[in-house]
Amino acid sequence: MIKTSDLVFRTMRIDHLPHIWCPGCGNGILMRDVAAAIDNLKLRQEKVVIVSGIGCSSRAAGYLDFNTIHTTHGRAIPFATGIKLASPELEVIVITGDGDCTAIGGNHLIHAARRNIEITVIVFNNNIYGMTGGQYSPTTPAGEWGTTAPYGNIDRQFDIPQLAADAGASYTARGTAYHTQQTIKAIQDGIAHPGFSLIDCYSPCPTYYGRKNKKGSAVDMMKYQRDHGVPAEQYAKLSDEEKTDKFIVGKLSQNEYPGYTQLYQQLIERSQERSQKKVYL
Amino acid sequence: MLCGNYEKGLMEKILVLNPDWCKGCGICAAFCPKDALEMIQGKVSLKENNQCILCGLCEQRCPDYAIFVSDSGK
Ligand code: SF4
Ligand code: SF4
């Protein structure tokens, strides 16, 4: 008999476990957070669709036991958009990485956010391209290293929730592998939110990002998250100087802009009314 | 198998380790509030003087689902 928790047994394809992620990789912790959030919301298995693109993060679609689709590089959001428009009653959840979501799929991200389509995007943000060998990504901080930045990276990094919010996402939040409770809550609220939700989750990659940038072990990388991630209320009380090396964990922004499938349904109803009127005239 | 507490409706919880899935990252041991765990030959192990309070924090942070708090009898 396979020894595993009830949660993992209920929500994952345990015959595919243990997963292929490296020892200490944050993706396993974040995938459990996603499973726990879905479980807490008591969503029925057949109502949940997990869509992923390409990259380490995107392996999650193979392990989670729901309707799952592992798509092409950067294109998880377009597939998710199609599924949601065709079947608005489904809960469509995208699991993607920093490269997949903001480089290859960057345009899809901003336009899905602009439409405010009711899907939830969860970014396993490890600041690097892990699967292909440690190339720097749009979230590798300036001054750090990647195999494609042998003299140091001069690009500034994307703040993914800020990018999504500015493009129109009506819910954004940040999680980390260390802050499991807050991350589960953020994912749960993001799924329940009736609009485009994005939860950017810091995932330690000890193998590439960590080793290239001398960040120490997986434990050291999680200690960094513990010591620098603070709740919004606490962050607001910090001085500007203290804020420089801190980041908010939990909800970052939320508004009530109407969701895209709702607007689309209204459009269908309006045009049906119009055509019916024509028949009677 | 149902143990006494289970029959009385009191679930008895236990900490379960699955060395087959443990990749030896040490995260569970590093963040256990009671310092109840140690790594032996690259695998998680419960220290001899069992200090575990069954809080489940290791379960939440194990990337490989190799440690968890379970209701006994299952
Ligand atoms: S359940 Fe809590 S006290 Fe017990 S080993 Fe895990 S983290 Fe430590
Ligand atoms: S966190 Fe999990 S994989 Fe890592 S040492 Fe502990 S039991 Fe093993």
Task: Walk me through the structure.
The complex is a heterodimer of chains A (281) and B (74). In chain A, 43% of the residues lie in helices and 17% in strands. Chain A has 281 residues and is α/β, with parallel strands linked by helices. In chain A, helix 2 (26-40) packs across helix 8, helix 5 (98-104) packs across helix 6 and helix 6 (106-115) crosses helix 7. The model of chain A has no long low-confidence stretch (mean pLDDT 95). The longest helix of chain B is centred in the middle third of the chain and has 5 residues, at 27-31. In chain B, the strands form two sheets. A two-stranded antiparallel sheet of chain B has the order 1-4. Chain B has a two-stranded antiparallel ribbon with strand order 2-3. Chain B has helices at 4-7, 27-31, 57-61, and strands at residues 13-17, 37-40, 43-46, 67-71. Chain B has one domain: Alpha-Beta Plaits. Chain A binds chain B through residues 3-6, 8, 12, 17-19, 21-29, 32, 177-178, 180-181, 206, 217-219, 222-223, and chain B through 16, 18, 20-21, 23-27, 30-31, 59-66, 68-70, 74. Bound molecules: iron/sulfur cluster (SF4) (2 copies).
Q: Which secondary structure elements does this structure contain, and how are they paired or packed?
A:
The complex is a heterodimer of chains A (281) and B (74).
Chain A lengths: L5 H6 L14 H15 L7 E5 L7 H4 L3 E4 L5 H11 L4 E7 H7 L1 H10 L4 E6 L2 E2 L5 E2 L23 H8 L3 E6 L3 H13 L4 E6 L3 H7 L5 H11 E3 H5 L3 H4 L3 E8 L5 H21 L1
Parallel strand pairs in A: 1-2, 1-3, 3-4, 4-8, 7-8, 9-10
Antiparallel strand pairs in A: 5-6, 7-10
Helix pairs in contact in A: 2-8, 5-6, 6-7
Chain B lengths: L3 H4 L5 E5 L9 H5 L5 E4 L2 E4 L10 H5 L5 E5 L3
Antiparallel strand pairs in B: 1-4, 2-3
The complex binds iron/sulfur cluster (SF4) (2 copies).
